[in-house]
Design goal:
By secondary structure, the chain is of the alpha/beta class. The protein has a single domain, classed as L-asparaginase, N-terminal domain (Rossmann fold). Helix content is 27%, strand content 30%. The chain has four helices and ten strands. The strands form three sheets. It has a six-stranded mixed sheet with strand order 4-1-5-6-7-8, with helices on both faces. Strands 2-3 form a two-stranded antiparallel ribbon. A two-stranded antiparallel ribbon has the order 9-10. Strand 5 (76-80), helix 3 and strand 6 (103-107) form a beta-alpha-beta unit. It is globular, with a radius of gyration of 15 Å. The N and C termini lie far apart (36 Å). The model has no long low-confidence stretch (mean pLDDT 89).
């Protein structure tokens, strides 16, 4: 099996908690620690593209992610991303990578990894499984489910990802 590229962009996945101020902030990605803890035996390369909350993500940031996806030699890519605008980034990538023969899976977490009760470990594991088995295209993997880029949204009232009815 070919190696998998993991691109970190920040989001709740990688947030830290400042005990003095009570604020969440970014320091560095936790992906390496998560892979070690999960005893991952895949060949992976980890790149940190940015460490931002997805609500702060701009069109230029999304273009930067697209450019990086096109540039990496791997055909299988997992992107850790904030959940609030993950579907928006998936849309940019879906249109921008059409025909690129790459399988890209975006995933994130509702609770930071550092909190101990995070869904991040599970979501990262399922994203790594999906990226190895799905055909080329762009997908969102959250909470055991996988969605095509053009039919997913985050239901902010329920706190879940769901199919967009057509």
């Amino acid at each position: 099996m070919a190696s998998v590229r993991i691109l970190a962009t920040g989001g709740t996945f990688d947030k830290e908690y400042n005990e003095l101020t009570g604020e969440l902030f970014f320091k560095s990605t936790h992906i390496g620690d998560m892979l070690d803890l999960g005893r991952c035996r895949l060949e992976v390369e980890i790149d940190t593209i940015m460490m931002i909350d997805s609500l702060q993500m701009t069109a230029a940031d999304r273009d930067q992610i697209l450019v990086r996806c096109r540039a990496v030699p791997e055909s299988r890519i997992v992107i850790t991303h904030g959940t609030d605008t993950m579907a928006e980034t998936a849309h940019v990538l879906g249109e921008g990578l059409d025909g690129a023969s790459k399988t890209v899976v975006l995933t994130g977490a509702m609770v930071p990894y550092k909190f101990g009760s995070s869904d991040g470990m599970f979501n990262l594991g399922t994203a790594l499984a999906f990226v190895q088995t799905l055909p080329p295209g762009v997908y969102v993997a959250m909470n055991g489910r996988c969605f095509p880029w053009d039919s997913v949204r985050k239901n902010k009232e329920k706190g879940v990802f769901e199919i967009v009815p057509h």
